[in-house]
Write a structure and sequence with these properties.
single chain; about 325 residues; alpha/beta; Glucose Oxidase, domain 1; 2 domains; nine-stranded mixed β-sheet; KFase_sf; hydrolase; EC 3.5.-.-
């Protein structure tokens, strides 16, 4: 299979984005007050379907660590988490805490950008020509007080259901990995699903493994955060829309292929998928252990719960996704 895909016109990012935004818009689909986007596809029936997939009770955390050894290098002022102890065992042993009858304790605090490691993009994260999700004016949605309309707290009860792993690194790549700059097309996604014997459809939470995180762990972070990477092709926008999935996440920093497929563009698939489609997108998920287990038992569907932290007004959130098989 080709490691690149032909976009409509590599020199016309503006035109291609506008065409896709119009064709795949979900504005008004769930009413003018909607704050959930494609999570509306994940209903009670879909959750029951997902829960019924638990057979062995084996669980996997799909989160990277949150520490100073993460991939961030300061782009857009994103840093790795800074973890600071407020009280320690030393304080307790020295009697500095002022508690009675010998009790002591430890407390800590963490400071970090909400999208510095495994995370969800909220619906207020990306705008298209000044418009936020559902056609709202961006300046009225996200202000210095946060996302006043589609804050990620609204999604907190909803992100749990049938998870599907598409290990494109295994099926399409070599030695379980795709090279940087590899554009994963609809054909690749369909072929991967067929190879796994799994279907993808309405309300599913889809996880796409490229092997990029595995390579970063082997070779060092390098340009993992913001550099070249395999990822979804811009041309998958139609598949993302037609499949009516609730959300999608990858093991890469930026979800879509980098460099992007246009001569002059920055994250064009984001520009279509989030503000126009209302699609929930996750990035920097750790899918390797789950992928190994799926390959071993031949089952690529599972119960997945991945609630964002209900941080009022946030446009993204750290998450510790749990897959249970």
């Amino acid at each position: 299979m080709s490691d690149r895909t032909t976009v409509p016109d590599a020199k016309d990012a503006e035109g291609a984005i506008a065409e896709a935004a119009k064709a795949y818009s979900n504005w008004g689909r769930w009413g003018e007050d909607d704050v959930l986007g494609t999570l509306n596809f994940l209903d009670a029936e879909k959750r029951r379907e997902g829960a019924a997939l638990v057979r062995d009770g084996v669980s996997f955390s799909l989160s990277q660590r949150f520490d100073m050894d993460g991939p961030q290098k300061g782009w857009r002022r994103r840093t790795n988490p800074v973890h600071t102890m407020l009280d320690t065992g030393t304080d307790a042993a020295l009697g500095n805490q002022g508690f009675p009858h010998g009790i002591g304790g430890a407390d800590d605090v963490i400071a970090m950008p909400l999208q510095c490691s495994t995370q969800w993009d909220g619906l207020g994260h990306i705008f298209d020509h000044g418009k936020a999700w559902n056609g709202r004016a961006a300046e009225k949605v996200v202000t210095s007080d946060g996302d006043l309309v589609t804050g990620i707290e609204h999604m907190a009860p909803h992100v749990a259901g049938r998870g599907v792993l598409l290990d494109a690194g295994l099926v399409v790549g070599e030695d379980g990995e795709l090279p940087d700059g590899f554009a994963i097309t609809e054909e690749h996604l369909v072929a991967t699903a067929e190879a796994h014997g799994v279907t993808v459809g309405r309300g599913d939470l889809v996880l796409v493994r490229t092997g990029r995180l595995a390579r970063a762990r082997r070779e060092g972070w390098g340009e993992y955060a913001g550099g070249a990477s395999p990822g979804l092709s811009f041309t998958t926008a139609g598949w993302l829309h037609r499949s009516e999935i609730a959300g999608i996440a990858t093991d890469t920093w930026g979800f879509e292929v980098r460099p992007n497929e246009f001569d002059h563009a920055f994250q064009p698939l984001h520009q279509v998928a989030i503000p126009n489609m209302g699609l929930l997108i996750g990035e920097m998920w750790d899918l390797d252990a789950l992928a190994d287990h799926c390959a071993a038992d031949g089952r690529y569907e599972f119960w997945l719960t991945a609630a964002p932290l209900p941080i009022t007004g946030a446009v993204g959130s750290p998450v510790n996704p749990i897959a249970v098989k």
